[in-house]
Amino acid sequence: MTHPLPTAPNPWTILSKETHFDTPWVCAEMYQTLSPTGQPYEYGYIHFKNKAVGVVAYADGYIWLVGQTRFPLQAYSWEIIEGGCPEGEDPFDAATRELKEEAGITADTMIPLFDLHLSNASTDEWGRVYLATGLHFGENELEDTEDISVLKISLDDLYAHVEAGHITDSLTVAATYKIMLMRALGELPGGTPDAA
Q1: Do residues 134 and 119 make contact, with C-beta atoms less than 8 angstroms apart?
Q2: pLDDT of 85-125, one tens digit each?
Q3: Same domain? 25 vs 85
């Protein structure tokens, strides 16, 4: 059991806020503040309206990845199953939906693995990753903007690709190390797919 880490009161004073850019997914906000030293400071960051969810679909030593072109990177990216959780939706429900939509998979069991903040100096984006086991396979239900491919890969090969820098998505990298740790500690549940 871990003990709570020490915390401190928030030393920032917000004087005013303006929204400079707004979409259904993100908005850019500019704050006039007093910094922790009491000096005026203009602080801008991106507010994410959706939470990020990721799913490690795991069975018998294998994980299912999805590949797609990420527009901001202008590059193809292999990742665990991921998506957005709109405000008001439970992250578990969003993760279950993304698992079905992107990979055509339903799971008997989904447990939360960890939460994380992504790029927390300039955004407030928050994510949660789940482990899905007891997998069942069907047809995916892609959105119009998705060019997704599905890949079954061994955990060892996934780890090798992360270590080699071939996979750089933050949720996927963090999930890979978590799953490897769980395996080393004997905490990784089993599960054999009923189809592949």
Answers
A1: no
A2: 999 999 999 999 999 999 999 999 999 999 999 999 999 99
A3: no
- pLDDT value at 77 more than 60: yes
Partners of residue 137 on adjacent β-strands: 105
Domain span including residue 179: 51-184
Residue 161 belongs to some domain of the structure: yes
Residue 89, both tokens: 């939706």
**164 vs 158: CA distance, rounded Å:** 10
What's at 123, amino acid-wise? T
For residue 112, give Cα distances in angstroms to 16, 51, 167, 168, 169.
37, 14, 22, 21, 19
pLDDT band at residue 141, thresholds of 50, 70 and 90?
A: confident
Angle between the N-to-C axes of helices 170-184 and 155-163, in degrees from 0 to 180, rounded to the nearest 10:
130
> What are the backbone dihedrals phi and psi of residue 124, each rounded to the nearest 5 degrees, phi first?
-110, 25
